[in-house]
Amino acid sequence: MTLRRFLLPLAILCAGTSLSAQTPNPLAPSGHWTAYQGGSATLPPMGWNSWNAFFTEIDEEKLLGSAQRIIDTGLAKKGYRYINIDDGWWLKRRASDDRLMIRADKFPSSLTVKGDPSFRPLTDKLHSMGFKAGIYSDLGRNSCSQAYSTGPAQLPEGTVAEREVGLYGHSDQDIRLFFADWGFDAIKVDGCGIRAFTPDFERVRDGQYRPLTPLIDQASITRSNIPAVKALFADINQSLARHNPDGDYMLSLCIWGSANVRSWGKDVGNISRTSDDISPNWNRMLTNYDSAVRRALYAHPGSWNDPDMLFIGAGDFDARHLTEARSHFALWAMMNAPLLIGADLRKTPQPLIDIFGNASLIAINQDPAGNQAVLAFDSNELQILVKTLANGDKAVALFNRGMAPVDAVLTSDHLKFRANHAIALSDLWTGAKSDFTRETTLRVEPRQTLIFRASGERALADGLYLSEQPGNVNPAVDGVVEPQPDPTIYRSIPGWRSTRGIGERPMYAGWGGAMADATPYDQPLFIGGKAFASGIGVLANSRLEVRNKGFARFTASVGVDDSALDGSQQVRFFLYGDGKPLASTMSLRRGDAPQSLAADVKGIALIELVARADGAQGNAVPVTWGDAALRR
Ligand code: GLA
User: Fold this and answer.
1) In angstroms, rounded to a whole number, what is the distance separating the alpha carbons of residues 174 and 165?
2) Is the distance from the beta carbon of residue 277 to the nearest atom of ligand 1 less than 6 Å?
3) How far apart, in Å, are the Cα atoms of 622 and each of 149, 460, 556, 569, 587?
4) Atom of ligand 1 nearest to the CA of 188
5) What is the pLDDT of residue 22?
6) What is the pLDDT of residue 150?
7) Is the pTM for the entire model greater than 0.90?
8) One fold for 2-365 and 374-463
9) Which residues of the chain carry a pLDDT beneath 50?
10) Element at 326 (helix H, strand E)
């Protein structure tokens, strides 16, 4: 034992507390699902948000105009429920009592009540139309538009203090106002206030705003104060619970994939942005899509990945670009992304309304099993995404990212269906039906996404692989010690900055996180030379929580993955059921044959899969839960 390792426990003992009381062992079974269960988001939220269409220039007429169109076009009946106000609604924080004031010239109904201006008439109106209403705030003292807007456009007014409209230091008061007084049902919490207002920021230097030591540096995980950011959200969680006794609220995290939120957003919010803002530009859409597409295990009923709002209706996704618009919608549907329309629906042409209204695609997004699609084939040109639906069917999307047509071969293996049985395909754009056995070749045009519902005989007849049900798998501890940027995310030119600066370097953490059907570093799964087409790849020193929806047996073949760089590390695998030990392996190292790990799980609600490295810490070893499955 080194001196340091000897002294540390001694110091803790001297302080009079035991080690376990000080730092709960994160690998100890929790016995319950620990991802966020507050609020109401068992399905990905659907609705409309003002930002992409209007930026800060929002008013009541624009908002209600789009809301009315959602009803008139039949979109409301198809599930679009949230009408969310984004940045631009606030006038100031009143000096006498710190109450937030509404920009009443833009929201005249706020003056139709006695006393202080209130959003209650507007939320009442939206509720009477059958909608839910959303509001917007910021973690810091100031908002994104105050940091970045280039005109005077609907920015808060008054003294420096009156223009501090964000939640910082006021979160309970504001959340009470939004939910208990004004009757909102959702809140988007942005983060520019804890990122932009450095002492040397021009608008701080010239006295417009107070400085606030940044907690987030978008370009650097190590310069971000992750515990402090989490603590701000924990406060918000408490206030939301306090001021929403019926639990009917939705919390949208908007810190753009910074501060490693892609690993913990699922623990504190209902939806969590995985990247910076989308713009109506094909390449930017790719960036946002890439930031979520390999993160299926981090999305579950109640806690979804959010690659940002739809930009259908503008630029590369307008009515002259229906192929691109359809791809954008199909990909968001497959990823269980929130379907939040960002268009001025008063002016949106029918072919685009038809995309928003495609009931078959909406059904894929809103499928009750809540499984985000998993990549079954990957390349920089064509990708095949497969999503397991509640009735055992698969949704499959073939996405051509490139500029040349691709004759793509879709196989029964991609779908985890048997090769010698007919597989029925139903085209979700055209309604055309077809079938094939073993494989079929499909022409995918540039930027096109073909999307089908597929049914066939399942390869695993008596159960479901865990990688087919990511909605039931929570990487409570994913073994990542030092978060690293994900190099696989497409790096586009941010429209708002053009090519000023040095461009987009890898910046969204998540590399090394748990993956379905791949190692944490996106390699094929192998244990001791044996390949696994199905399985979960995760780093050692990890704990996965698995919800068991009525299965009787858990089976897997486990081991250190052949991709581990350090062949000397030893790992033991443990299974727990509702917090109690079920089974374990001996220590395994790279090259050892896969070990079978199985247990009866009948009547057990939560299974936990723990991989514990024997040796010291350090960046952990990839391990593979090969063919991990729940069986009848
Ligand atoms: C940030 C968010 C956007 C939008 C704007 C508002 O950029 O990421 O979605 O809310 O702020 O200013």
Assistant:
1) 9
2) yes
3) 44, 25, 16, 10, 14
4) 10
5) 60
6) 85
7) yes
8) no
9) 1-20
10) helix 322-334
Q: 87 in ligand 1 pocket by Cβ < 6 Å? A: yes
Mutate to test the pocket of ligand 1, among 144, 155, 279 (most ligand atoms within 8 A of CB): 144
145 CB less than 6 Å from ligand 1? yes
Pairing of strands 553-560, 394-400: unpaired
* Triad 156, 157, 159: Cα angle to 5°: 120
Q: How many beta carbons lie within 10 A of that of residue 567, not counting itself?
A: 11
Q: Spell out the domain ranges in the chain.
A: 2-365, 374-463
The pLDDT score that the predictor gives to residue 619 is: 60
Amino acid at site 77: K
Judge if the beta carbon of residue 58 lies within 6 A of ligand 1. no
CB 626 within 8 A of CB 535: yes
Q: Residue 177: CB within 6 Å of ligand 1?
A: no
- Tell me which residue has tokens 């409309």: 48
Task: Please give the span between the terminal C-alpha atoms of the chain, in angstroms, as a whole number.
Answer: 47
Q: Which numeric CATH code is attached to 374-463?
A: 2.60.40.1180
Of ligand 1's atoms, which has the minimum distance to the CA of residue 143?
A: 12
Q: Which CATH number fits domain 2-365: 3.40.50.300, 3.40.50.620, 3.20.20.70, 3.40.50.1820?
A: 3.20.20.70
